[in-house]
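Section 3.1 - Work completed
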Amino acid sequence: MQAATVVINRRALRHNLQRLRELAPASKMVAVVKANAYGHGLLETARTLPDADAFGVARLEEALRLRAGGITKPVLLLEGFFDARDLPTISAQHFHTAVHNEEQLAALEEANLDEPVTVWMKLDTGMHRLGVRPEQAEAFYHRLTQCKNVRQPVNIVSHFARADEPKCGATEKQLAIFNTFCEGKPGQRSIAASGGILLWPQSHFDWVRPGIILYGVSPLEDRSTGADFGCQPVMSLTSSLIAVREHKAGEPVGYGGTWVSERDTRLGVVAMGYGDGYPRAAPSGTPVLVNGREVPIVGRVAMDMICVDLGPQAQDKAG
């Protein structure tokens, strides 16, 4: 009998990268592997994707783990550096870094580096989280072009706020700001992450940055899946039925008795819970697959168990 197990399908991961290349054929790929590759394993994922053109991370520590693990491709620090003292390491390891505020720019201007750093100036086109405001961008860009510690030309990056909402108009506005600023500038450009790759081909430019879609999960909120775009799920979370019980109509199940059966049925108890990473907030009705068919969770998710309604005619057995 198998307890909760995560299975990573490396073939699906490679397939997804190739599928995204088909969707953005003129662009290079920054495979985003931040947050332990979305839980899929940082080094394992990077080693599975030798054809990626670069890797994107959120922290310098992640970039250093990639280098220590033998990854020699470019690594982009998507949030830039957090401390000026990190610049010599970034330079020595040939990491790329976003630069999005005055403090980072001043640190670059004042640093004493053996080699210049490849920089991606982050332009705030509408996310309003990180980035240089458009009215300040030309002066900021000019200082980067004059900085001895910046490898020329300066690259330009931004990020969509609502790429998953194709009818809201926000993405068109961001694209217009991005295009206006980039016009006539020689560096590489990147604005499309997962949603941009799927829905906005005019945003692909020189580099795209697939994140969640690389792992087979749609970033869109319209109930689409990765399969709708030709991608495959990379992670499977599986377990076993540890009990199958007869359950009477009117009986509650689990903590708080939040679900009460309206019929006689058969309940399955699965060795899986929030202690295994399953979302504790998953409500009754959340679908899971049991022996290839979809059945609903019933009752609250416990630390190491969930209950599912198998149906009154179910023939499933524990094990």
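Second construct:
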Amino acid sequence: MDLCVRLGYEYGADVIKTYYTPNNYSEIVNNCPVPVVMAGGPKDCSIYDNVQKAISEGASGVAIGRNIFQSADPTKTVSDLVKIVHRGKN
């Protein structure tokens, strides 16, 4: 994953969107000179946990589609995710 992120930056990306990887995400984020946002990934119930972990490990934000659109209550899902992403970033 490190190599892919680095290549994205070297080819001129202004932001990197990548999946949360529990083993080395903070290293990836800290070594990338442009903002890194977490991709939503597969539809599952761990999206809130993954977002919390990614943000705590330095992600600048999230880019999530399916986990919102296919949730039982998309409005609540977005509201909950906004709280996680912006907690302490006011």
